[in-house]
Design goal:
heterodimer, A: alpha+beta, Aldehyde Oxidoreductase, domain 4, seven-stranded mixed β-sheet, six-stranded mixed β-sheet, 27 strands, B: alpha+beta, Ubiquitin-like (UB roll), five-stranded mixed β-sheet, 5 helices, globular
Chain lengths: ~700, ~150
């Protein structure tokens, strides 16, 4: 297992969809025997096709092609969901090919064309894919120089190359000329000869430079086609019948009620019922007619009212794969807690929230001569390919998944539900089918960021230093579980629980919950010790990157001056996925509402690739984090989501925009790491500190209770 | 029974035979292949489907085709004149007012409608007018900056 795989396993939580097709069971049973079915399904859901190979031996031609007009096509399985990977990888290729970015055409996330760089998750594009692309492009550049030298009949050392032009002793040749005159494609079929020389950070001309989004013009003119915008000749629109509540089983239905409507094809396959029609309006009418005849057997389901009791009651020690990693253990925590004079014992509650990307799940599926092609919005094209293979028993070249640049992900699109459903409908209809989930479907049948209960017991010695740290996370996961502060006796663990809702990844996943609980607990300990929250943290932090961002944020914010003035301020810091963040917040609380919000955040992720996008990501993360800190929480009862709407599940909007000051710490001396996630983790606890200062009441929940 | 409706979209006359209650959004996307206008919620809560009807920013997901019979509709596809972008479109590029970009057509159409009535809208007017257009990437600072640029601020 290579490094990228390992990271995905560490950072992702995902539950498979909760339905099966009857026909698939028959196929599996016939081919493999019933006993193997479950195993196969699970394996398929994580399938990595055989194309994933060690990068060292990868032919350069798998990664890039040069066309006769001198445009270089670069390929990657990564997807663009708004985090900026298209621009970033284009910059990386342009840098090493010594070309302006307009000369690079990046093909992303097509399982038939692109080398498998893994899914898009865990902030891995920056540390893992960008170096791969740079290395391949640098090797290709060297190969092209050799080829140009041979064509010009000089030694490679006598050829200068820059911006698509080869020069030697007064003669020049363009990249386009070279493609016409030499066997470029054949030459790129061989893998690189050795490690190619990539440009040093100090010499970067494209990376590190503020760069606007590639493809921006297509977006502002409405020409960019998102997955929900794909239209094929003869295509129909699909709808799926959803159960009225979680776990409900269909006991009877009159399919004729939908089938009799003009142009409608109704499909039933086990628990799955859906329809297609020439318009989504007609398909919707057919589903309404089917809903009216459907009878269901419902089951009991926990409600959000008693969520945290439920988690606690169903907790299992051991924690499985997630619980075993990340947490630390040192010394004798119980003895240290027992003997200490001053201690805290605090519980934190973290609600389920949803990604709610602006583009709900969507897929267009087309069957042609037994081959299935699906355009869909997913962060995991090759895993979706695996899901489709599993669902339809397809092998070899039978499935192609293409992910057009998609309308938002935030860790919420690791699954292929819409792809599988669209393919099932298309197969039955004998036509291409577009299936676009409604907002209500997305809010109900996608997955959620795990809820969590976190218990922190900690104690101080008589010098006011932390002597014991006992941290238990129920359900929400292990990211950033280990405290970065110096503690002699500690125990940190994850307990697995029965999750009432289907749960999965989210931007920064559990590190938001763990950082929230830890940082609020640090404030409580600082208060107990009678020390300023900044000084208390500094006293427990080693020299290094986390301490540096904490100092940078508090200096820019003017922490000590504001503190002396008695303002309502709070701070927090944390690290996850190799980058470092600290936030300071000032806020008033008026009539139970946060007002006059000022956020100052410092962030460091190594050498910065694109300052424009970094600023945008950090600001977006702060504001998105405010949503979860202040308002967002799934409410559910009787197996139904009670706020499956933007009217009742209130995400941040323009008027929520705080005043923001950023310190983006550039470290050209350090490797670049991903920046789409970690900037979200510090805002909630920093705000909690400011709210405590304003109200005197300590809120230990996300969202915060302000009353 | 389907009825026939006439409307002008981006300066072109169209005649559509469909159910009176069918949302304008579906007609634009599925009958006229104008997919630049996006579905976000289907209940007028997010603004992704914003188009301009007779000069007014309108949520096409909760507007029926019957309501726009005989009226003038503008969508994102009709905004640029030839290769020249509308100043609001250009401002969105200049200010990087997009991450995934899915909400952008609706944001732009809403901003265009605002600036036609208030060419020099104040910061407060901008926030008030744009507040109903959700961006889940939460790129609001750049979005606000783009509309401010287009308003000459």
């Amino acid at each position: 297992m290579n490094d990228a795989n390992l990271e995905l396993e560490r950072y992702e939580l995902r539950e498979p969809q909760r339905y099966e097709f009857a026909t698939d069971r028959r196929v599996f049973n016939a081919t493999l025997g019933a006993g193997l079915m479950l195993l196969l399904a699970r394996d398929n859901s994580h399938a990595q096709p055989g194309r994933r190979q060690p990068r060292r031996g990868e032919p350069l031609g798998d990664r890039l092609h040069v066309a006769e007009d001198g445009i270089v096509t670069v390929l990657t399985s990564k997807v663009e969901v708004g985090q900026g990977s298209r621009t970033q990888i284009t910059q990386a290729a342009a840098e090493e090919l010594r070309l302006p970015i307009e000369k690079i055409q990046l093909v992303m996330a097509d399982t038939e064309q692109c080398p498998d760089d893994g899914g898009t998750a865990g902030s891995r594009t920056t540390p893992s894919t960008v170096p791969r692309v740079r290395s391949a492009c640098a090797a290709a550049r060297e190969r092209l120089v050799e080829l140009a030298a041979a064509t010009l009949e000089v030694e490679p050392g006598e050829v200068q190359y820059d911006r698509g032009t080869f020069t030697t002793a007064g003669r020049t040749m363009s990249l386009a000329d070279l493609v016409r005159e030499a066997e470029v494609a054949e030459s790129l079929q061989a893998p690189p000869n050795g490690e190619a020389q990539v440009r040093r950070v100090s010499e970067w001309q494209v990376l590190g430079v503020p760069t606007n989004k590639v493809g921006a013009e297509a977006i502002v003119t409405g020409q960019h086609r998102y997955p929900s915008d794909y239209q094929l000749p003869g295509m129909e629109y699909g709808k799926v019948l959803r159960p009225p509540s979680y776990g409900a089983k269909l006991t009877s239905i009159d399919l004729e009620a939908g089938q009799k409507l003009e142009g409608v094809t109704v499909v039933r396959d086990g628990d799955f019922v859906g329809c297609t029609a020439p318009s989504s309006w007609q398909a919707g009418k057919a589903i309404e007619a089917l809903v009216a005849t459907a009878e269901w057997e419902t089951v009991d389901h926990p409600s959000s009212e008693n969520l945290f009791t439920h988690l606690k009651e169903t907790a299992r020690e051991g924690g499985g794969r997630r619980g075993r990693r990340g947490g630390g253990a040192a010394g004798d925590v119980d003895a240290a807690l027992e003997s200490a004079n001053q201690s805290i014992d605090s519980s934190f509650e973290i609600a389920y929230i949803q990604h709610a990307p602006m583009e709900p799940r969507a897929a267009v599926a087309e069957w042609s001569d037994g081959k299935l092609t699906v355009w869909t919005g997913s962060q995991q094209p090759s895993r979706v390919e695996g899901e489709l293979r599993g669902a339809f028993g397809l092998r070899g070249d039978g499935v192609r998944v293409i992910v057009p640049d998609t309308g938002g992900g935030f860790g919420g699109k690791h699954t292929g539900e819409a792809a599988v459903e669209a393919a099932r409908l298309a197969k039955a209809a004998g036509k291409p089918v577009s299936l676009r989930w409604t907002r209500e479907e997305e809010f109900t049948w996608a997955y959620f960021r795990p809820a969590g209960l976190i218990e922190v017991k900690a104690a101080l010695d008589d010098q006011g230093r932390i002597v014991a740290w006992d941290f238990a996370n129920y359900n929400s996961g292990g990211s950033a579980l280990d405290t970065p502060y110096r503690v002699p006796n500690k125990r940190e663990r994850v307990l697995e629980c029965d999750s009432p809702l289907r749960q999965g990844s989210y931007r920064a996943l559990a590190s938001t919950a763990n950082t929230f609980a830890r940082e609020v607990a640090m404030d409580e300990l600082a208060e107990l010790a009678g020390v300023d929250p900044l000084d208390f943290r500094l006293a427990h932090l080693e020299e290094g990157r986390l301490r540096n961002v904490l100092v940078a944020a508090t200096e820019k914010f003017g922490w000590r001056k504001r503190r002396a003035e008695g303002r309502n301020i709070g701070l927090a810091c944390g690290t996850e996925k190799g980058s470092y963040v600290a936030a300071c917040v000032e806020a008033d609380v008026v009539d139970g509402e946060v007002q006059n919000l000022l956020v100052c955040q410092a962030y460091e992720c190594g050498a910065i690739h694109n300052p424009t996008n970094l600023r945008s990501q950090v600001e977006g993360a702060i504001v998105m984090g405010l949503g979860a800190a202040l308002r967002e929480a799934m409410e559910f009862s009787d197996g139904q989501i009670q706020n499956a709407s933007f009217y009742s599940y209130e995400v941040p909007r323009m008027r929520d925009l705080p005043e923001m000051e950023l310190v983006l710490v550039n470290r050209p001396d350090l490797p670049s790491v991903g920046a789409g996630e970690t900037p979200i983790i510090a805002i909630a606890p920093a705000l909690a500190g400011a709210v405590y200062a304003a109200t005197g009441g300590r809120s230990r929940s996300m969202p915060l209770k302000l009353g | 029974m389907p009825d026939r409706f006439s409307l002008e979209v981006n300066g072109q006359a169209h005649s559509v035979e469909t159910d009176a209650q069918r949302p304008l959004l579906d007609v634009l996307r599925e009958e006229l292949s104008l997919t630049g206008t996006k579905y976000g919620c289907g209940e007028g809560a997010c603004g992704a489907c914003t188009v301009i009807v007779d000069g007014e920013a309108t949520r096409s997901c909760i507007t029926s085709i019957a309501e726009v019979d005989g009226r003038r509709v503008e969508t994102i596809e009709g905004l640029a004149s030839g290769v020249e972008l509308h100043r609001v479109q250009q401002a969105f590029i200049d200010q990087s007012a997009m991450q995934c970009g899915y909400c952008v057509p609706g944001q732009i159409m809403n901003a265009v409608a605002l600036l036609r009535t208030e060419p020099q809208a104040t910061g407060e007017q901008i926030v008030e007018a744009m507040d109903g257009n959700l961006c889940r990437c939460c790129n609001y600072r750049n979005l606000r900056a783009a509309v401010e640029q287009a308003a000459g601020r």
